Amino acid sequence: MTQLGLLARILATGFSVVNLAHATGLADIDHVVLFMQENRAFDHYFGTMAGVRGFNDANLQTNDGVPVWKQLTTTDLTNETTYVTPWYLNYLGGNWSEATQCMIAGSNGWYQNHAAWNHGTNDHWAMNNTPWSIGFYKRKDLPTQWALVDNWIVADMYQGDGFNCYPLKWKTAAEYYEDAGVSWQVFQDADNFDDNAFSWFQQFQDAKKGTSLHERGIKGLPLNTFYEQAANGTLPEVSYIIGPAQLSEHAPYSPHDGAWLENKIAEAVIKSPKYSKTVLIISFDETGGWFDHVDPYRSPDRTPGEWLDDPYGQVTELWKISTA
Questions:
Q1: What is the pTM of this model?
Q2: Alpha-carbon gap, residue 191 to 103, rounded angstroms
Q3: Separation of alpha carbons 153 and 17, rounded Å
Q4: Helical spans, DSSP H, in 102-245
Q5: What range does the record give for the signal peptide (predicted)?
Q6: Quick count: other Cβ atoms within 10 Å of Cβ 77?
Q7: Cα–Cα distance between 226 and 148 in angstroms, integer?
Q8: pLDDT grade, residue 307 (50/70/90)?
Q9: pLDDT digits (tens, 9 = 90+) for 108-157
Q10: Which of 49, 70, 76, 259 is the 20 to 30 A CA-CA neighbour of 244?
């Protein structure tokens, strides 16, 4: 498989992470690398994985005794059944494993996601989004992503968040780092696909050239500099990785292409002389219209101070690569 990156090939041949230098605890961590990709749900990528909150969820939600897997349909969709269940995108075989790499799901809009969520029953994805939303991949379709998750730590209850009050104005983590004397840096190439969230903040928009917020947060350094600093053991204490659109995994950009960048970043960290003092966190910003069966955290209706505009979204992925 050409999409199987060097890291995944090494792991597939029996390489064990126990052969690497290990930290003894979080106090040993000196470097944090944050790398966020785009628009994939947990079940969509890892639903068939053992030991996670996927298709074998031991605490599966039921609605009046009906498992949440049964997504309701309408006669506009089909006259042959009243529900559909999650289905393997490449069940037809042939070249479908390549074709579905570029497919899209339904809408990731506020209305469609809330209509699919259906006041907590979470059973209207086929009706109010699309039957494509509940399609999923398997290990063989995502060898690099699965190699990373299998050999390190995955969070199966990590949720997306939404913002709609631009420009954002609260004090960012990077500004707290500045106050505390913690070094930080954005690494990005020319096309950041609007994934540099610092550009959404008023104070970064107003920052003049030459200031720390502009140079470290808006302008940033190229990804090649990240690879060089990782190899030299000279990364800042906090690094933000922002990839180009084509490698973001945002449909219709393919998981295979995004895996190439995940592989590059992970290899840079693992091969760094500071690996035992570094943690890499790979996450996804939102589900992209893909289905996850877990009901998101939320406040009960009519709770004082309830999140109305920016509640947590559906479950997406996060995994951690570290010896700690």
A1: 0.90
A2: 22
A3: 12
A4: 110-117, 125-128, 143-151, 173-180, 202-205, 212, 223-232
A5: 1-23
A6: 14
A7: 20
A8: low
A9: 888 898 999 999 999 999 999 999 999 999 999 999 999 999 999 899 98
A10: 49
